[in-house]
């Protein structure tokens, strides 16, 4: 396989291209793309525990903590103890974040629609299935598929 055909390279290139477009649109809001997706996740479900939020945005808790610190500093989120579990913290949107909801939600839908508009409906369905399959794949195993049939071979680790 040639380097240019590497799936990681291709997905990374597309992600950077999409992120660049999104960053430009977010500049007037003073948000990073990660902050934007965090707020979008909270617009969908406010008051979630940190662990649930980490899963939703696919970030580890350490990375998420720094991001939440900045959002809290900018008065976009607040942290409150979970009344049912004193060890858990729930994340809530502030009035400032709520005041941005309509515009950010519209930007989210426009942006996503723009990216999907270049695909036919059939391509979009296939794309969603492929992304779902890759997201659910267990890449932590010590075996790798060696053929399209899914047969696996042990890795020869040094």
Task: Supply database-style keywords.
158 residues; alpha+beta; 5 strands
What does it look like?
The protein has 6 helices and 5 strands. With 158 residues, it is α+β, with helices and mostly antiparallel strands. The chain has a 3-stranded antiparallel sheet. It has a two-stranded antiparallel sheet with strand order 4-5. Strand 2 and strand 3 form a beta hairpin. Helix 2 crosses helix 5. The C terminus is likely disordered.
Low-confidence stretches: 152-158
pLDDT averaged over residues: 88
Q: How is the biggest beta sheet arranged?
A: 3 strands, antiparallel
Shape: globular
Please report the distance between the alpha carbons of the first and last residues: 23 Å
Strand line-up across the major sheet? 1-3-2
Q: What is the number of helical segments per DSSP (H or I, 4+ residues)?
A: 6
The count of strands amounts to 5
**Cα Rg:** 19 Å
């Amino acid at each position: 396989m040639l380097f240019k055909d590497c799936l990681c390279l291709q997905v990374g290139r597309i992600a950077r291209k999409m992120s660049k477009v999104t960053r430009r649109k977010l500049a007037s809001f003073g948000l990073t793309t990660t902050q934007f997706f965090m707020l979008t996740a909270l617009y969908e479900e406010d008051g979630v525990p940190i662990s649930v939020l980490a899963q939703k945005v696919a970030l580890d808790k350490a990375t998420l903590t720094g991001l939440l610190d900045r959002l809290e500093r900018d008065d976009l989120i607040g942290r409150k103890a979970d009344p049912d579990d004193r060890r858990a913290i729930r994340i809530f949107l502030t009035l400032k974040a709520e005041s941005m909801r309509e515009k950010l939600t519209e930007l989210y839908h426009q942006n996503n629609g723009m990216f999907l508009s270049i695909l036919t409906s059939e391509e979009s369905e296939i794309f969603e299935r492929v992304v779902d399959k890759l997201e659910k794949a267990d890449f932590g195993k010590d075996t790798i598929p060696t053929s399209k049939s899914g047969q696996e071979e042990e890795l020869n680790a040094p």
